Amino acid sequence: AQAILARGFHASPTNYMQYLVLKIGPGSDGNSKDGKEDEEAPESEEKPLLHDDSHKLLPKVFWSMALIAVSATLITYNKYLIHPSRFPYPVMLVFLHMAGGSVLSTLLLLVAPRLFPALTDPDKKGHIDLHLVARVVPVGLAFVMSLVLSNTAYQYASIPFLQMIKQSNVIIVFMLSLLLGLEQFRTRMVVVLFGVMIATTLTIHGEMNFSLTGLIIQLLCNFAESSKVVMQGVLLSGALRLDPMSFVAVVSPLCGAFLGGLILLQPRVHALSWIVLPAAETFRRCGLLLAGNILCAFVLNLVIANYLKNGSPVAFILTNLVKDAGIVIVSSFTFGDNVSLQQACAFSAQLSLIALWSTMKANAATFDQHGFCK
């Protein structure tokens, strides 16, 4: 179960709901033989259990709220920073994120090694060698591609529109998983995901400031991000799995080196002319904004790591639904982005259908037996 949570660092709800099946499963109250023990237990024995549950609830609520707040802040921050009058250089911005993540994760590894169990815990420590690096590289490349495309899309479309398009990730992940034999075909799943596709189409049709370029870039971003999710589940599983912070510590230097190489070659290779580099004056003018953005991106990784440690699959699904809705609402007020009534209704349908899809993933056996369609 912990493997599934760790693997779902940037994953869709699929892996978390599989964890829910493993964690809860049938007969979770199997310690009681005939039910009489529960009835005869004195009231004083129940209070500590209730107290523990309440005590465990506080960290879950805190990290859920932190995940929502920091995610929304970083997305809004990136949209503000990527504006043509500030720092419209997505490749350089992602490079700075990777470089900053490498430095900060190294410092944190020295100060708090317990946050990197895959690198420091003898019981969980994996063997870092060329075999692991070879498996990490394709995941890292897909990760970098998704970040660059995501930041590029901010230059052409509004956050609410892009956030609505991102909901189609669940469809791409499902299709890639089917192609690789990782997912079992179920008609009911296809029906729900078809509903997500229709709702996504309605959000596109209802966009008041439609940008074809922004749509294409975001769809490419969706494919890169979904590919990264699937590859991370296939290549970094079992003994090779990495917890969120260890993933950042291993992947950030590799991705930073790759992007740094592209940036160095850009003036000499015509094929890299699409990479626009900022002037030194731009760095001086936006230095504080860039430093804050890099720190915010790293803090998000910390929050994700602690959330996965304290949260639960159901809380993760609900948190992401609230986060997505909150990002759309906040950006509408922050940047004045207009959301049509058709988009609002279609976006609500997207979130509802994805919640239903996650529930069906969590209770596949129950739906097979009693569900609306096998």
List keywords for this structure.
single chain; mainly alpha; disordered N terminus; 374 residues; 17 helices
Q: What general outline do the C-alpha atoms trace?
A: globular
The portion of residues forming beta strands comes to under 5%
Order of helices and strands: HHHHHHHHHHHHHHHHH
Query: What does the average pLDDT come to?
Result: 79
Radius of gyration: 22 Å
| Secondary structure: helix percent | over 70%
How far is it from the N-terminal to the C-terminal residue, by CA? 26 Å
Low-confidence stretches at least 5 residues in length (pLDDT < 50)?
1-52
Let me know the largest β-sheet: none
The DSSP helix count reads 17
Q: Which class do the helix and strand fractions yield?
A: mainly alpha
Compute the number of strand runs: 0
